[in-house]
Specification:
This protein has two domains: 108 residues, no CATH class; 159 residues, no CATH class. It contains twelve helices and five strands. The strands form two sheets. The protein has a three-stranded mixed β-sheet with strand order 1-5-2. Strands 3-4 form a two-stranded antiparallel sheet.
Length: 321
């Protein structure tokens, strides 16, 4: 070992040294930085790959092939745009390396910045579905599967018994858990903020954790499913128009008719949920309207939900019963 170190030291001491004043040139940092940017963009696009069903479990609660396919189609469409942009970044990088003029460098960094924005937008969509489908691997998977099956049962009864039976749209409604007070739904084929305003490929039913813990409050599933049924049955235009026309025919003011027209979606969801689930749905949803007078008697102009009670009932003197 000592002999090896001595030989190495002798070689270093006897090696020719560069003349004093001459500095060894290194590769400039700018060309190296330019070369790596197209590689980064391409690797970003490759990393945002489509999902496989196997990565979200194989049990009954796992996302169906249809849900995975719908999410992958959206991700693939967005990735195609990013890959085209990566090609433009690569060509701009080659021109900037050939001639690093301010104009070519500006063009290059502008395209690089645009590609970065695309990456962020696709990551947002990819991350949304990763979290959405990943919940099915948790202990909440069976709870969410039960809600999916309630939703599917509502669709089957509605589409089979509508008069002329219709095919049930696919993929079906997909339930997921969020914290918060109220359930919500995001209908099929509407621009969704969570997806960067891309069209939502299948209905989403958002359920608060506390409702999943208390199954007697899950009449909300039937209410939220009914919002989707109104659209998928093609009733989203005819019902509000019919409500307004009927009220005007009975001499109600235009403002009153317009208000009830605006409330049509919530009225339909409540009535549809009641018909699908029976009287127990009323008791299940009472926590929505069984709140303080401040929340139940105030009229909010432009709100989609009907006011549960008239505000003047509180001012009436109490009589003997």
């Amino acid at each position: 070992m000592l002999e090896t170190l001595e030989i190495a030291r002798d070689r270093v001491e006897t090696a020719p040294r560069p003349p004093i004043g001459r500095v060894r040139r290194t590769r400039p940092a700018l060309p190296a930085w330019i070369r790596v940017q197209p590689v980064s963009v391409t690797r970003h696009a490759a990393g945002l790959r489509p999902f496989t069903r196997a990565e979200f479990g194989s049990g009954a609660a796992a996302p169906t092939e249809g849900h995975i396919l719908a999410a992958n189609q959206l991700i693939t469409k967005l990735r195609e745009g990013l890959l085209r942009l990566a090609g433009r970044v690569n060509r701009a990088a080659a021109k900037a390396l050939e001639d690093p003029s301010p104009e070519r460098l500006t063009r290059f960094v502008t395209l690089k910045d645009e590609a970065h924005q695309w990456v962020q937008a696709i990551e947002k969509v990819w991350d949304f579905y990763l979290e959405l489908f990943g919940q099915r691997q948790s202990r909440f998977g069976k709870w969410l599967l039960a809600c999916d099956r309630i939703a599917l049962d509502c669709y089957q009864h509605s589409f089979v018994n509508i008069g002329n039976a219709k095919s049930i749209p696919a993929p079906g409604a997909f339930s997921y858990m969020r914290t918060g007070f109220s359930p919500a739904t995001f209908r099929r084929a509407i621009p969704l903020q969570k997806l960067g305003l891309q069209l939502n490929p299948f209905p989403l039913i958002q359920l608060p954790y506390h409702r999943l813990m208390n199954p007697w409050t899950l009449g909300a599933v039937l209410h939220e499913v009914s919002h989707n049924l109104q659209n998928d049955l093609g009733l989203d235009k005819t019902i509000p128009a019919a409500i307004e026309q009927r009220l005007l025919e009975h001499g109600l003011p235009q403002a009153v008719a317009h208000t009830w027209k605006r409330w049509n979606r919530e009225i339909y969801a409540d009535m549809s949920g009641l018909l699908l689930g029976g009287p127990a749905v009323v008791a299940s949803l009472m926590d929505v309207v069984g709140r303080s007078p401040e929340h139940t008697t105030t009229f909010h102009e432009g709100a989609p939900h009907p006011t549960p009670r008239r505000a003047d009932w509180m001012r009436k003197p109490r009589g003997r019963h």
